[in-house]
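Hi all, posting the design record for the shared folder.

TITLE: backbone redesign
STEP: 1 of 1
STRUCTURE INPUT:
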């Protein structure tokens, strides 16, 4: 019987200090605006000028066991999501704490071809490795310390697993990568850069965890708390939110929303910002005011480069989704924001990646984020 080994990883990238490099090489003014170089690509007889993205560097790791250069990645631990495994493995293999960005794609190949330069076997009976990839960026040591309580420990890989780490421009990385499948992921990364992903901010919409039933609760609706099962989901969700490292935590002031983010806030030492416009009652009175509140949060996240998580209620999410679909880069992407109730399960999140444009915020990626409760 075929065995499928699940794994996850990503392309860790950073901005080069392009102006300093140019100044050192040519003696040019370091304050000058760098220009992204172009190269010619033939397409059906026509020649197009496409960016090399030489202001970006990506991280490759060398595995001595296979003597190959590849993206940092590894197998899922028991009771671990692909998302969390990607953050952990990238951190272990590069030595840098990271936060996830837009999703890239997946590859699959027979385990027997691990280390092979051409992974092309179509044997559907062979044991298979299935890997999901994300974009990822480094976070500061201070941010890493704040996040550790929510994410859990990450230990550096030993020299027998990874013995060298290099940073290269995408064009040079393409030449150094050992495997055809890794080059396919690089092509998806370039596609994301062309969408503006290097400037994208994670903006997480959280639906509060399962709350006590209205019929059995004797207090006010605003004070209705989450259930013990809801508390377990909220605790597990913190593990997943940490993968995106939200720094600003905003919430409806009603208890069930505050309790959903409370564990993550406590683990990371962050305060919660209360947004009265996002309660169910406030939304019922003025849906437009709720949207204006949400849009201001998105703009604040972009202006201040602050990954953000906002917790709210089912009816509010439905109204907000109607507006967010108009910000999506494509109709296909907009369909991920479900148009019928309940929009999202309780205790889950949607990670939106938003880029700034002259016409306002644009959403280029949407990821479902569900906790693993075990």
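Okay, here is what came back for every position:
SEQUENCE:
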């Amino acid at each position: 019987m075929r065995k499928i080994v699940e794994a996850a990883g990503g392309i860790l990238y950073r901005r080069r200090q392009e102006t300093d490099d140019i100044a050192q090489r040519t003696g040019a003014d370091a304050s000058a605006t760098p220009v992204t170089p172009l190269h010619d690509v033939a397409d059906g007889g026509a020649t197009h000028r496409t960016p090399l993205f030489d202001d970006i560097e990506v991280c490759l790791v060398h595995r001595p066991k296979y003597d190959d250069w590849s993206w940092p990645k590894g197998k899922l631990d028991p009771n671990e999501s692909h998302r969390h495994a990607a953050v952990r493995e990238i951190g272990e293999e590069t030595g840098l704490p990271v936060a996830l960005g837009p999703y890239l794609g997946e590859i699959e190949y027979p385990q027997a071809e691990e280390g092979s330069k051409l992974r092309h076997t179509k044997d559907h009976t062979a044991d298979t490795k299935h890997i999901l990839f994300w974009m990822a960026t480094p976070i500061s040591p201070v941010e890493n310390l704040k996040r550790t309580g929510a994410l859990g420990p990450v230990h550096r890989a030993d020299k027998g697993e990874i013995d060298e780490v290099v940073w290269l421009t995408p064009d040079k990385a393409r030449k150094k990568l050992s495997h055809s499948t890794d080059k396919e992921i690089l092509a998806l990364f370039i596609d994301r850069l062309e969408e503006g992903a290097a400037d994208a901010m994670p903006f997480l919409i959280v639906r509060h965890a399962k709350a006590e039933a209205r019929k059995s609760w004797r207090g006010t609706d605003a004070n209705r708390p989450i259930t013990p099962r809801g508390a377990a989901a909220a605790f597990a969700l913190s593990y997943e939110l940490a993968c995106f490292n939200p720094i600003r935590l905003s919430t409806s002031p009603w208890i069930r929303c505050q309790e959903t983010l409370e564990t993550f806030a406590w683990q990371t030492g962050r305060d919660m910002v209360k947004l009265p416009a996002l309660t169910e009652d406030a939304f019922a009175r003025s849906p437009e005011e709720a949207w204006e509140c949400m849009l201001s949060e998105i703009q604040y996240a972009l202006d201040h480069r602050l990954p953000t998580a906002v917790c709210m209620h089912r009816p509010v999410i439905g109204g907000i989704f109607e507006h967010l679909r108009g910000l999506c880069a494509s109709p296909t992407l907009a369909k991920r924001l479900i148009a019928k109730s309940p929009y999202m399960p309780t205790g889950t999140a949607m990670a939106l990646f938003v880029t700034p444009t002259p016409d306002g915020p644009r959403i280029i990626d949407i990821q479902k984020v569900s906790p693993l409760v075990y």
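COMMENT: Confidence is low (pLDDT under 50) at residues 18-23, 25-50.
Let me know if anyone wants the other runs.
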